[in-house]
Design brief:
Number of domains: 2
Largest sheet: 5 strands, mixed
Structural class: alpha/beta
Order of helices and strands: EEEHEHEHEEEHHEEHHEHEHH
Helix content: 40-55%
CATH class of the largest domain: Alpha Beta
CATH superfamily of the largest domain: ATPase, nucleotide binding domain
CATH architecture of the largest domain: 2-Layer Sandwich
Number of helices: 10
Length: 318
């Protein structure tokens, strides 16, 4: 009998989201399901063991929903994220959940299993629907809850050019959000508050500190904590100051990267890159300049399995 399987089932189990997706050979997204991991009010994150436990609880539910709408007989391959980055020694326990389920599914369905890094999935999802080809030459910023990195992607190879030496942008946002009384993760709500605020006349925070193409962010968090404790500013002003400082840091970082590499095409992806405030400020700054700035679709910038599915499609059929 001719095999009519036409979709790749993808799994991603990151620090704070359980994700299942199905992408067909034409790179159409047939299914995109996610479950945000639960964090207690007032806490600023999850232990890996707690996150892993939640993934093991979420995956059977998401997969049952998946197979109710997409028959198992049409799965041509399974793709999973098995590590944070495509570098030696990269490891986080949370990814063993998706890998274990992926291996079991591939064996049961008698289909190939493809393994990619979480970061590769972010880049593929961020580039989806844009002119960027992940096999070409471009710069990329991976800006998520636990990662703030500047990358150079060339012929499918990913090289780290710079990054944070302490906290990530996402960590600073979430920590300040929780300090301000918001739930975790706080990024979406803080972005809405920042977007609703009229820009302050001037930045009261010191700029992000650069060391070449690396940055330090713990000082930014400390500044805002002191400001909150001494002045009790309104939450909307906190969000506006923080997001404007991040946007200006990204602009400076982008300019430094383009100047040093000669590469003028940049992709921004990850949960922080889904911020409408940050996106508008960066795009406004570079509008009309001799460079190509691409932000991934907001729905595909945060953690998801779609990018892993797209990579699986390329590995299987292209």
């Amino acid at each position: 009998m001719k095999n009519t399987a036409s979709g790749v089932l993808a799994l991603d189990t990151s620090n704070y989201t359980t994700s299942v997706a199905v992408v067909n050979r034409s790179e159409c997204i047939l299914l995109d399901q996610r479950e945000i991991l639960k964090v207690k009010q007032g806490e600023r994150g999850l232990r890996q063991s707690h996150a892993l436990f939640q993934h093991m609880q979420n995956l059977p539910i998401l997969l049952e929903r998946c197979f109710q709408t997409f028959p198992a007989s049409e799965i041509a391959a399974v793709a999973v994220s098995d590590k944070p980055r495509q570098v030696e020694g990269s490891y986080m326990p949370v990814f063993t959940a998706g890998l274990s389920f992926g291996k079991t599914l591939a064996a049961a369905l008698e289909v190939p299993l493809f393994r990619f890094s979480h970061q590769e999935g972010h880049l593929a999802a961020g580039a989806y629907g844009s002119h960027i080809d992940i096999n070409n030459n471009f710069l990329a910023f991976h800006l998520s809850g636990g990662t703030t990195e500047l990358l150079h992607v060339k012929a499918g190879e990913i090289k780290k050019l710079g990054g944070t030496k302490d906290l990530s942008f996402g960590q600073v946002i979430d920590r300040i959000g929780v300090l301000s009384g918001l739930g975790f993760p706080a990024g979406s709500e803080m972005d809405m508050l920042a977007s609703a605020c009229h820009d302050p006349a001037e930045i009261i925070l010191k700029p992000v500190h650069f060391q070449g193409l690396d940055i330090n962010l713990s000082g930014l968090e400390t500044q805002i904590e002191r400001w909150i404790n001494s002045h009790s500013p309104e939450r909307v002003n906190i969000c506006c100051q923080l997001f404007k400082t991040i946007a200006e840091a990204l602009i400076k970082w982008s300019e430094k990267a383009m100047s040093q590499t000669g590469c003028s095409e940049i992709l921004y992806t990850g949960g922080v890159a889904s911020s409408s405030y940050i996106r508008s400020k960066v795009e406004e700054h570079f509008h009309g300049r001799q460079c190509r700035i691409v932000f991934g679709k907001p729905s595909l910038s945060s953690d998801n399995a779609v990018g892993i599915g797209l990579l699986g499609v390329k590995a299987l059929w292209q």
